[in-house]
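Marked as duplicate of an earlier ticket. Keeping the data here for the record.
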Amino acid sequence: MWRFKPFGHKEQTGLEGRTIDIGNLKIHVRNAIAEGGFSCVYLARDAIHGSKQYALKHIICNDEESLEVVKKEISVMKSLRGHPNVVMLCAHAIFDMGRTKEALLVMEHCEKSLVNMLESRGAGYFEEKQILVIFRDVCNAVFAMHCQSPPIAHRDLKVENVLLGPDGLWKLCDFGSTSTNHKRFERPEEMGIEEDNIRKHTTPAYRAPEMWDLFLKEVINEKVDIWALGCLLFRICYFKSAFDGESKLQILNGNYRIPDLPKYSSSIISLINDLLQSSPDARPDITQASALLDWPFISMKLG
């Protein structure tokens, strides 16, 4: 889980203050703005064009598995480059440091995250129009991923991975958990490996029922993102998780309750219900979900 750091003076960490050539960019690294276990995101400026800012993600790869995760993230971001609702990868490099490898990903800088906005609003819920704009942008990014061949499942859709770009559009980030390995896991050794992947690379509150219990023998594919979109939409609407305490039993049974307040239209409620179907076959695909989303947009003249 990323921990966002407050702005202000702080002790220097690894890359702060350094000027680095990455691809065809020369950047000056400023302060750290978020950090994880083996990675850190810094604010950086273009050393040539000083007004241009970037987010620099620094990842330490201690083994082949973590290196493959980074390579996958770079590959997915390159395949989605230019999409308005995907954080843009501007340059990247992987350096061999001997015992470890270090990856540097230069991305467009997005100052605000959706989770920060939710946490700073207090009891001030979003209006329905705001919810639909945010959710439409996320769906557009997921649509682009699911339309690849084979479809790319993000597998870690959550409010922490939705950022507000300088162009005013909401953008999806963090593609290290993605997968194109869509299958039904039946052999014990395969199930053990997949359970470990799920535990490491997905977030319990957004995890689909078929990921919680591989003995359901459901195909695990891009439909896990549809479930996560339902959890995401619920969180944007009601500022809390659909499933209290991330309860495995509640999730397996699809047991959640729509709060009495705030009141939203039947279109929003129906969309949440459609996305949070326990059986992946019963969930819409992203094309159908986007079509469902269009109805409230048409009625509200959002286009």
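See parent ticket for discussion. The longest helix spans residues 128-146.
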